[in-house]
Amino acid sequence: MADFDSVPVEKFSLKEVLITFQSCLTDSQEIVTDSYVNGWRGLVRFMNSLGSIFSFISKDAVNKIQIMVTHRNGENGDKYETLQSMVKYELDNNLVDLQRRAEHPESGCRTLLRLHRALRWLELFLEKLRTSTEDSKTSVMCTDAYNDSLAQHHAWIIRKAATMAFCALPGRAAFFQTMNVGSTEQVVAMLGEAMPFISKVYEITEELYKQHNLLELP
């Protein structure tokens, strides 16, 4: 069982995120929890490397990561080895608040759902960056990705603050430099390698939650 500490502070590395999400899937297409959490550690570093603009998302992600770490390091940690085993264990043992938040506000299923929703936003944003041109505005790309994903789960005041914060995003070149890969061409190529793995993890999780009617957990 992995023994995680708090989210590390080293620089973001796109290659590291690629490798981590690549290792998320088992041969049977189950998602390894430890790799998923480590992938999110890298994404948090990406957000934090751009200053406080994404802090309203990254802080919540750090909190959710720690909850998942606690589950993995607990006495039933083996039940949380994959997302599939987690869902089965928590549902079989009535450890998920299905209708309203009550006894299990920090269930693995609810916690993971919040990370899953945020992953969709990052997936859309990174894909827009990959296919963008030198003249593309990162603020527009980020806002469009947010409106197509996380916004529907946020209150109006949060949506308003988020879209205002996105206006302060640096340009495309600054984002690419943050990824610590090399030239623009190298960044685009590595995003091209990484995105299918991130998308696959998202799709499998989405289907898993859909099968068990967990996509709207309170």
UniProtKB/TrEMBL annotation:
Annotated SUPFAM superfamilies: Glycolipid transfer protein, GLTP
Keyword Cell membrane carried by entry: yes
Pfam families named among the record's database cross-references: GLTP
Domain Glycolipid transfer protein: 31-180
GO molecular function, one term: ceramide 1-phosphate transfer activity
Annotated localization: Cell membrane; Cytoplasm, Cytosol; Endosome membrane; Golgi apparatus, trans-Golgi network membrane
Protein's UniProt keywords contain Cell membrane: yes
Annotated catalysed reactions: N-(hexadecanoyl)-sphing-4-enine-1-phosphate(in) = N-(hexadecanoyl)-sphing-4-enine-1-phosphate(out); N-(9Z-octadecenoyl)-sphing-4-enine-1-phosphate(in) = N-(9Z-octadecenoyl)-sphing-4-enine-1-phosphate(out)
Keywords, sorted A to Z: Cell membrane, Cytoplasm, Endosome, Golgi apparatus, Lipid transport, Lipid-binding, Membrane, Nucleus, Transport
Membrane association type: Peripheral membrane protein
GO cellular component: cytosol; endosome membrane; Golgi apparatus; nuclear outer membrane; plasma membrane
Predominant location: membrane
A GO biological process held by the record: negative regulation of interleukin-1 beta production
Similarity comment: Belongs to the GLTP family.
Protein name: Ceramide-1-phosphate transfer protein
